[in-house]
Structures are given as structure tokens and as C-alpha cells.
Amino acid sequence: MFDKILIANRGEIACRVIKTARKMGIKTVAIYSDADKKALHVEMADEVVHIGPPPANQSYIVIDKVMSAIKETGAQAVHPGYGFLSENAKFAEALEAAEVAFIGPPKGAIEAMGDKITSKKIAQDADVSTVPGYMGLIENAEEAVKISNQIGYPVMIKASAGGGGKGMRIAWDDTEAREGFQSSKNEAANSFGDDRIFIEKFVTQPRHIEIQVLCDAHGNGIYLGERECSIQRRNQKVVEEAPSPFLDEATRKAMGEQAVALAKAVGYASAGTVEFIVDGDKNFYFLEMNTRLQVEHPVTELITGVDLVEQMIRIAAGEPLSITQDDVKLTGWAIENRLYAEDPYRNFLPSIGRLTRYRPPAEVAAGPMHEGGTWHGDAPVGETAVRNDTGVYEGGEISMYYDPMIAKLCTWGLTRDAAIEAMRVALDSFEVEGIGHNLPFVAAVMDHPKFISGDMTTAFIAEEYPDGFEGVTLPETDLRGVAAACTAMHRVSEIRRTQVSGRMDNHARRVGDNWVVNIQGESWPVTIAADPAGSTVSFEDGGTLRVSSDWTPGDQLAHLQVNCVPLVLKVDKIPGGFRIRSRGADLKVHVYSPRQAELAALMPEKLPPDTSKMLLCPMPGLIVKVDVEVGDEVQEGQALCTVEAMKMENILRAERKGIVSKINAGAGDSLAVDDVIMEFE
Amino acid sequence: MKDILSELEDRRATARLGGGERRIEAQHGRGKLTARERIDLLLDEASFEEFDMFVAHRCVDFGMEKQRPAGDGVVTGWGTINGRMVYVFSQDFTVFGGSLSETHAQKICKIMDMAMQNGAPVIGINDSGGARIQEGVASLAGYAEVFQRNIMASGVVPQISLVMGPCAGGAVYSPAMTDFIFMVKDSSYMFVTGPDVVKTVTNEVVTAEELGGAITHTKKSSVADGAFENDVEALAEVRRLVDFLPLSNREKPPVRPFFDEAKRVENSLDTLVPENPNTPYDMKELIVKLADEGDFYEIQEDYAKNIITGFVRLEGQTVGVVANQPMVLAGCLDIDSSRKAARFVRFCDAFEIPILTLVDVPGFLPGTSQEYGGVIKHGAKLLFAYGEATVPKVTVITRKAYGGAYDVMASKHLRGDFNYAWPTAEIAVMGAKGAVEIIHRADLGDADKIAAHTAEYEERFANPFVAAEKGFIDEVIFPHNTRMRVCRAFASLRNKKLQNPWKKHDNIPL
After folding, report:
1. Predicted ipTM?
2. B87 near A CB under 8 A
């Protein structure tokens, strides 16, 4: 076994690899750029080597720099993580030349699977199911119909030179195939000057399901079940789970065996992933093979108990696999949510900056990883597992130079429902402040009926959130729970206020029992009766809720029990009330005295200003220049002004045509988020 | 006897109706509450005790003798806020538009006199069309009586003004002399002369909101200390402010139970100051992380944002915070920020509220507009305010403390009690670049030499240890321990006694 390995990566995956290396008694070397001086992986590693300026192409992916770090530290092997150099055959070659082990597959496998056409060819030769199609030239409509019938409807008729949906038709029968062929051909000729057409199977209700394989250098190969990654935003996976709620045992076995066959066909020896697209009838077709550790590998670890990084290291050290296919048991369910520094309310705009608060939920050990002894760290044991793979810390920085991932939050439960529920609670307890992030969005997905029923396709986000994410509206029962919780918290706060020094003797303020809770304009009159164990909140329109909690003023996370069901709320003060965040919802809650409520009802509702005719500053920054003047007519996409933030110049452009009516800021002004820079007529 | 009791009931009921149902409705229609409704929300439930409910005006001109509503357009009395006594007057816009008559003024004066005598704050709710024209000079005299009391009460009891409607002409000078002014967005305005006169005299066309609305006075003029969305929110937040304030200059600032650890460690503060000295960071994060329960009541949040002022509690006790904000104008001192902070420091000193100063200041803002505007005298106000303050003063330098601005920001030399610095602090006459260009003028043409000199200067002076060697810094502390250090410092100063020499009063460069 190796004594020392170098991790040619950063962030959470570097930390992840270090954890396993530590467990195995292997020393670790981290590399870091200028932007990562204070990064978590640097703190965790036994040795660190600085490898250059922040941009990855001047540091993390410069092979020479990594090689010299290896030389300097005498590392015997390199784990590449994912991304960066993980699927770079040249890097594998350089390591080979230097006689340093690559904790990944042989160079040949990387090359073979790195090319889409070659990999499909190899897959076909290995009897792996690929998307059926006819790559040759199709002469006329009748031939198109014949081929379509051979493939089986529905089919996709595509222009060879096509792109962006042009020259593309879906046909469900002979008539449509005939017409589609003709119109595609015409369109292709007009658009691209190339009327060559080909036909392939159109995959309906596509789901992204991938098989984890492990192969050693001695010809052994196994598969560790599948992961479903259908919930993606613009091809970026957001939610993954294992197993898939869609597969049956037979399909799983068929996919697994094909995946292993493919891996063996290229002499694979490491952990790898074979990605398939699966249609509504459980037909599956090979997409590509990823010759590295996947981001979403933890869900597989959580249901199998196999530490994939450990296996990779052992395989790289030449050990034969110690697990056979029969040893692989899938137990329970695991879900992963990727927390990204992307603001869901601003169309997932990356948000960089300082994590003023970062408190992930406490990890809990459970399931196969715990039982198999592959759990990292010393989390307490529970019924459901919570695992958080992260590379950041409170006070750390989300840098603009790298992937905006904050953490991978995973939960495991005996059933899918248990895993989802554990995830909801974990998300509610996850505190991230200082930057925009997608936590409310993934929380919304966890409560989405289609996700809950497991009925999703790769179009889930595009179909369910066509206009982007606009926040969550909680069902009435949940709002009542929040209302009861806020009443109890408000009462505690108000009682404390009456304990201030300098009071008149014998004329203390008595805090009342009757309150009116207002959440986003809706009011619930309630009465609270407190006792040493908690409080009972009775709603005037019927129903009572029992609330208990050890919340005290200032706690930003309230752990409550509402009718014996745990409820976790993020609590912030706003003028005259609370800001409550829960289950992806962001609520303004006011707990009024009855008199206050009566008078608050008289207050005019102030609609937020119509910002569609304004240019708002999207980030705190300095105006470098303003490109337009009052009275100018601007076109959609025209540059309006430049804001410098975090030393980056951001050009703000017109979203639509208009005439500039007012300019509120000039060069040199420093603005906050949402300050109005200019207005349009 | 029963008749007599019921007559009292009737008279009270009539008085409580003010200008009558129709006018109350009109008041609500403007998004405003009535004088009594406002008192209901300001004070603890059922704690209000009214004075002079039946006072009526004595004017007999212009047919005024035919209308003599009880109360005369202002509701006065006392009550409690969380059990602590406050005096309050609330102008009733439904009675003669809340206009101020001789008797109206007398009612206000009465509670102000009592407040001073009994040591309790005065909270004034302003909603008045101005002087009662029919009374002429008697009304003006009434204003002056109120003004005189505002002046006498200043520094004796806290005075808080809520402007919740019109406040124009001479009437503005009463709130102007109080400690804090809060306004309500869209339904309040303050100006000396209104839009019509402005148009006649200067030809400027401006709306009342633009001329003297809440946004104008919190962002541009700094007349107001805060703006709220509506009456309900404003009154709730004034209650919250009162929780921070002592009732008078005879008592210590209030203390209340707190749910926070004085020894709370904040590791994230170790990375608050960025590596690049020119990269800004948000000083509010430090304030919130130091404060008990993260509770910060900011004063003048929207004005001169390069300095932050407001109240926090440390171990339950109120502390005033003054902090440079590197996010805005690099946190420099200029005319506006000096004035803002100076007034805040003087308020704290007047009411025995200890002051925590957080320093990251590159110096005073250069430029003709600053010099022509008298930055010398305005900067001197802050210097003066800090120097004369006898309350406990604890200072933490997080990064830059350059030049004269270093001296100003509650330095050791201005009788700072505890002067801490983070290891990232740089206490120097100026930044390395500027210093090198002066000291090594001869080498200006040689970039390499200048770079070497700069590095040398940074090595020698860009740290807190030169100042610490001289005792100007009491201790260099770990950022993550700042809350504990600051809490202990203030705890040790609870019995601080310091007296300035006797004088009639000082002559601060106003």
C-alpha cells in the first residue's frame, strides 16, 4: 500500500479523498492555488504544495506543476478527484513515465471512453445497448419509412449538420416519418446547405440512470447498482439518488452486466460510471462512460457500504477486488442534493463571496456505511443517516474561479420516504448566509409531488419550473405550524423584554395570551397557554397545536416539536416580526397583539415598486462607467453600465428595448444589491 | 351620583373621538393611525394615563369660540414601555389638523416638565398642519415654549420624535432638537418651507415627498434617523429603541437578561479581513457577531454609510457602536460621516452609554468639496466628541488606522480605556505607498527601489506592534476572541469615574 498520495484537486472532493486516506493510514498531500490558501483541503492535508495563481488553467490543471509537486513531496500515487485532470490521458501518461500510480483507470480506458463515437462503437461491439439508429445516407422518404420501422417508432429524424433544433422532427408513424423526412431535408438544405439526414430512436420520457462499476487490474469487475440523476438543470445534476425508483431487479441486472462488460472491454481498472438513458418502457441505451469518481458517488456508498475511494486506492495499488458481485447488497435509499452558490431567485446566477454563516446539519451515521465500518468521522448513530461532503467553512470564501458547489448533502433511510424526510429536515437545519444559494430550490424539489412519487424525467426542472423558481408556498397545515411556533417564540421574546432594568415597581407589563399571527397577509387569531413543558396554541377558527422548544431569543435555528412532529425553522428578526425560512419558503411573520392586528389591518398595502422598468444593481459593487444618457433609446442587449464587484467588471445590459428616463448613479458610486441604477420610460 | 359618573363617561367618550368619525376615517384613508391609536401601540397595554383631556383653546377670534373640542388637538400623558415609564404627546390631526395653539403647547410643556422632573423619556408623535393661524402670535409663543423645553431636556432625558404626518415651518424645530427622529415612508414630511414657497422663490418644482419625505431625510439630509414602512412598524421599532436607552441621565443604561455566551468564539472573524488590503469587507458582520444575540439597532442606516452607528447589548447592557465601514468609500472619514458619528457619540456620552469603536479607516476624504465644505471643523466635531466623552470607551482596530483619522477614532490618546488591535491592524501615518513616495522622494524614478522601500515600510509599520510597543495599543487580540475581550473590558469599566474640568459648557466646533 502507498505511504503518501497526492490529491490533484480542491474543494469537497479533495477533502473526501483525504478522509479515506487518513482512515487507511496514508499521508496526504494537497495542492492549492493562491485563491485556496485558506481552503479546507489545505488545512486537512498532511503536506501542502502551492501550485500557482487562482485560474485552474494556471494551477490545478497544469500537468508540469502537479508533477513537480509530486516530485517535491515524494507522493507515490495521485488521486485526481473529478474534473480537472481526472480524465486527462496525458496526465495519466506523465504519471506512468514518472512511475507514480494513478488512482484511476489505465490511460487506454480513458482514451477509449473519451471519444463519443469510439465509445459508442466499443459499446456496440461489447453488446451494450445503444440508441438504435441508421447512420448511413437516406435517399428518399420511402427509405426513411422503412428504416423508421426497423428502428421502431417514435423516431427522431435529424439533419447531419443540424443543431439547435433545426432540421429535427419526431415521427410517431409512417405518415409523420414521410413528412418529417421531407421537411427536415428542406430545412437542412436551406439552413445548412447540407441536406443529409439520419434517423435514430427517439427516447420518450428519458431518465438519466447510471451504473457504478468497480474493476481491478486482475480482470475482476462488479457493479454496485445504479444512481438516478434525472433531476438536472441545463445538464448539471442537482438531485441524485440510489437506487432508482424506476428500475426493477431484472433491468438493474441487465444494465449492470452490460456496464461491467463494457468496462472489461476496455481493460478498465478502477471505479467508473456507465451512463444510460432509460425510456418510459425501461429500455435503456448507453450514453457514455465516465472514467473517474463521480460527484454523486456518496449515494452508492450509502446504500452499499463500499468506500469507493478506498477501493480506487486499493485497485491502484494492485490489490484484487475483495468484494464479489454476490457481496453487493443494496440496502435502503440514499439521496444527494447538491448545494450550489447559485441564486434560484435570480435565475440561478452564480453568487460568490464570503460565507458569513455556514452551519451544516449534524452528521448522523446509519445504514450500510455505518455497519460496514466505512463511515467517515465520529457522527452519532441514528435511524437515518445525514452525510455532508463539503470543502468550505464559516468565514470561508466561494471563489469565482471554481465550481460554485458549496456542499453535497446526502441522507440515507431504510425507505425512499424516510430518506426524503431526513433530507427535508437536514435542509431546514442547513444554515448558509452571505451568498445566494439553491437550498430553497432543492427543498422545493423534495416536496414536489412528482419527485415524491419518483415520476420524473430529465425534463423535470424545465417542465415544472418553466419560468424559473419563484419560491415556495407552504400548505395551510404547515403555515399553521409556523404560526404556532412563532407565537410561542414571540411570547418568549416579549416576556424577556419585560425583564429590562429600570421598571416601575408593581406596574410590570403583563404579556398577553391572545395574539394574531400574520403570515404574508393572512391572519390567524390564536390563544397561547404556556406550561413548563411547552405551550398549547389554540386557533380561533378551530384546532390546537402543541409546541415545545428550547428556543431562546437570538437563536437563528429553532428546533421545535409541533404536535410531536419535529419542525426546524430558520429565524431572523425583521422590523416588528420574524423572517422564517422553512421547506424552501421564505416568510415574513408578524405576531401582533389583538389591538396591533386591528390597527395593522388599516395600514395601506405597499406594493413593491415595479422593477421591470428599472435597472437594479445585481450585486454590491462600484459603478465603473455608465454607457447611456437620459433620453437615449436602448436596444435589448445593449450595454448600459459596468459594475465592478470582487475585482470583476460586470457589464449590465438592457433586458428589453426602452428609453432611459432617469439615471441615479454615476461612475464612482458604490451601490448595494437592488439599488436602482437607472429607470426607463 | 350615577348621573355625574355617566357624564364623565360621556365627556371622555366625546374627547376620545377627537375630530369625529368622519375625520378619523379620513386619517385612516391616508394610511395613518389616529393620535390615540398610536399611543395604544406605543405603550404597554392599558398603561396610558392621560392628562388634560378636557383642555380646550381660549381663542375667540374668527368664530373659533364656537368650536372648542376637548383636548385641543393633542393627546398627552404617560405610560410604560415594557414596564419603564415614558411621557408621550401625540398630535391629533383630526382636530384642527393637529395645529398648535397656545393651550395645545401648554399640554406638551406640562408633560415635558414632568418628564424632566421625574426622569423619563419624552416621545413626541408629530402630525400637525403647523401653527393655529387663528391664534397668531400666541401660537408662535407656544412653539417657543416647547423649543425651550426641548433644549432644557436635551441631555437630561432622551427625547424621541416620530414624524407621522406633516411637520412644516417652525414646527420642525422641536423634533430637530430631540435626540432621534423617525419618519414613516409615504405619509410624513418635514420642511421649513413647502413646495409652493420653494416654487415661488427658487422656481424649483418639487413634491412634498421629494422635498421632505422619509427617504429624503434619511438618505440626503440626515435630519431623520430612520424610516419605517408604516405607523405600526414605526411604533413597534421605537419601543425596541426605548429598550436600549436609559430613562434619564441620572441612571445607568438598562440591562436585561440575555441568551448568549460572553465567551462565544467566532472563528469566522479570523478570516473577516481580506488578504488584499484594498479589498473591502462588511463591518456590520463584525458588529452583529459581537452583539448579544446578533441584535443591532442601527441609527442613520442610510446616511453617510462609510460610518456605522447604533446600539447593541453586551452581556445584557446597552453599548453604542461606532464603526468605519470599508464597503463604502473605503471607510474614510468625511464631512457627513464625522457629523453623524459625532452626534451619536455625544448622545451616548450624555446618557452614560459606553462606546465600542471598531476602526478600519484610511484617513480623511481628500478633495475640494470636502475642504470647501469645512471638513476641518466637521472632522473636529468627532474628535471633540470622543475626547470629551467620559463613558467607558473600548476600541478595536481591525485593519487600517492611518493618520489623523487614527487619532480621531477613540484612540488611546483620547482617553480610550481599552485599545485593542487585531493582528491585521496597520497603525501608521499613512499607507506604505504614500509614505515611501515622501520619505524616498529621490528614488521616485526607480520602480524597483520604490518597490523595495514599500516592502520595507510594510514590514516595519504595517502591523499593530509598533503602536503596541509604545503602549498605544493595550493588547493585540485574536479576532475570534473579540467578543470575549470586549465584554470583559466593558465589564471591568462598569464603575468607571471620570470627570471633565468644570465649565459652563464646552465650545464644540459646531
Report:
1. 0.93
2. no
